[in-house]
Amino acid sequence: MAEEKKEAVEAEVVSEEEKKEGKFGKWWKGVKKNIADSTLEAKIESVYNDTHESFEVTPYEAGLFGGKTVHGEIKDGVLTIFGKEEIKVASVVIAEKDKKAYYVKSVAPSKVKIAVDGIEYERDGQDIVLDENVSEVKVIKADGRYFLYQGE
Fold first, then answer.
1. Residue segments in the chain with a per-residue pLDDT below the cut of 50
2. By CB count within 10 A, which of 12, 33, 101, 142 is most buried?
3. Which of 119, 124, 85 is nearest to 104 (CA)?
């Protein structure tokens, strides 16, 4: 009789329960990573906002709710802010600190750098070119319309 050769094969038996736990484990790791990423992004924005001045940006058609608050810094007539807010040309920008007003001349994408826990991050921002020559007028609001004040 011919000699039969037998090979030993090592195999791990994986039950259905272990397969499900594997899928759940992968899903849970993904969820934890998404939460960690979201938390980091919120922390980066919070640190930026806490370390920069506040500005109120109000477009012509602001309506009942007024403008939006952005955070940044002015250097050489350019306000650099965090994020990609919709900022319209000819809007009014008022610095919260000293109440100085500006008109928006132009808006361009840029980058901002933020240090959080000793690590520097670079995120999207915007450069807003400002015009200091603003005209302030006194008005009377009546029936949802505005009229120039004629008094002293």
1. none
2. 101
3. 85
Cβ(96)–Cβ(55) below 8 Å: yes
What single-letter amino acid sits at 150?
A: Q
With beta carbons less than 8 A apart as the criterion, state whether 37 and 45 touch: no
| Model pLDDT for residues 48-79, shown as the tens digit of each residue | 899 999 999 999 887 666 789 999 999 999 99
Structure-block tokens of residue 33: 């990573």
User: pTM of the prediction?
Assistant: 0.72
Distance CA 126, CA 133 (A): 21
Q: 142: Cβ–Cβ under 8 A, 6 or more apart, which residues? A: none
Residue 109 CA to residue 124 CA, distance in Å, equals 7
Residue appearing with tokens 């259905």: 16
Tokens representing residue 43 in the block: 């922390």
CA atoms 18, 23, 29, 31: torsion sign: negative
